[in-house]
Amino acid sequence: MEIFGKATTGKKERPVRVVQFGEGNFLRGFVDYMIDVANGQGFFDGDVVLVKPRESGSLEDFHRQGCQYTVSLRGMVDGRAQVQNRQITCVADAVNPYGEYDRYRELARLDTLRFVVSNTTEAGIVFDGEDRFELEPPGTFPGKLTKFLYHRYEAFGGDREKGLVMLPVELIDDNGSMLKSCVRQFIDLWKLGEGFRTWVEEACVFTSTLVDRIVTGYPGDAAQKEWEALGYEDRLMVIGEPFALWVIESPADINGELPLPQAGLPVIFTENQKPYKQRKVRILNGAHTSFALASFLCGNDTVKESMEDGDIRDFMERTIFEEVIPTLALPEEELKGFARAVIERFENPYVRHALLSISLNSVSKWRARCLPSLLGYVERFGRIPQRLAFSLAALIAFYQGAEGGHSGERLMEGVHSMGEGDATEEGHSREIREGALIGYRSGQEYRILDDMEVLEFFRDNCGKDSREFVRAFLDRVDFFGQDLNRTAGLTDAVVRFLEDIRENGMRAALCRIS
After folding, report:
1. Is the torsion defined by CA of 365, 369, 372, 376 positive or negative?
2. Which of 126, 274, 436, 463 has the largest count of CB atoms under 10 Å?
3. Are β-strands 215-217 and 238-240 bridged in parallel, bridged antiparallel, or unpaired?
4. How many CB atoms lie within 10 A of CB 274?
5. How far apart are CA 390 and CA 336, in angstroms?
6. What is the pLDDT of residues 438-451, one digit of tens each?
7. What tens digit of pLDDT does each residue of 204-242 get?
């Protein structure tokens, strides 16, 4: 079988305009995909050079294929399941600064270079006072970037026209501001001079960005089948979903230099990304958190199954459109359009998103994703949003480890004795085993994963009656940032829903919400 490469794609050489710290699946299936589309439509004429941000790992497959690869986007588009394959030709080279430092340094001296993209994980944007300028390269990503910028500053004699635009996509708040802060600290630590500091401040741009696309990556065991369908061997193939969003908050107008929206790509340039982050967290992530645990206790295992369950889907849609969207600041039609796209993503037949994976750390997730909508709804309408309150009762039921109802396990069935101090008032107790609290659904164990203080709270309090338990849970300021018993009507609503779940089962309780 033919090995995929430049001979296959007929790659056109373009000026290198982007240096990218990171060669992973997400960047190649998101940023590089967009640049390739913009190149193909004539809006951008530039190539990307990948820089390996860590010493471990190999670039062998990149060199073997001339950095050419296939992106396969799979999911629902306008209500239909589609597969869209694209051969990516915008990546010109891949450089390992740990073994090819001279080649890496030359990238900083390229006259055509304008953009620096990075995805070095959430832990990558950190300042380390032990990092050293004389290392080739420095150990941290901000250290690497600072020295890279210094090479460029020296090569062009501080020319203000040769500054670079930083586009970090690490999943932390204000990633650009955080990165710039680290660079400033390295300038001080390494005593790189006021001239360089001024050049960084005035000639360079640090944007903060928000990104959204599920990229599942290389097909793994299914690779051979994928190659046969493509007609060539591609060891760099990337699989993702069609949906994408890139919000770029920039102190300077770079829209003309990076004309991705003009190519029809889902890129938004803004002076404030926070409303878009709030939209994503409350609608996309909040929807997951609000229905996932109830759906699991109704017998579903994945998001796709949940969307095929009429009761769960109705609950999810009414939560989003009736209780979340009314609390958000962006235009209503824009929010509804985003919500419809989210639902289409949940229906993706090519992505198996397990509900138990979503359940990880659900208490902190509920606080970040659902609580602001609940409080915003109370502030605006003066009453408790019923579905968001039910989602909190469903969380409690999930952590207490039984779906309830006369046909399902009672709350204390299947639990094991733990020892003195852990017994419930009924003589039973919950078990924490290998870092997980053990729950039961239809007689089968499931693992509940969260911070240990959360797991211990549920283990130690599960024998209390519903009102006493709910009051104790909502009182945990360390869980919620405040005493939620002070939110008028919330305690009563959660108690009522929890008792209904315990007596009649999750599905019956969920279907009774008005």
Report:
1. negative
2. 463
3. antiparallel
4. 15
5. 22
6. 999 998 999 999 99
7. 999 999 999 999 999 999 999 999 999 999 999 999 999
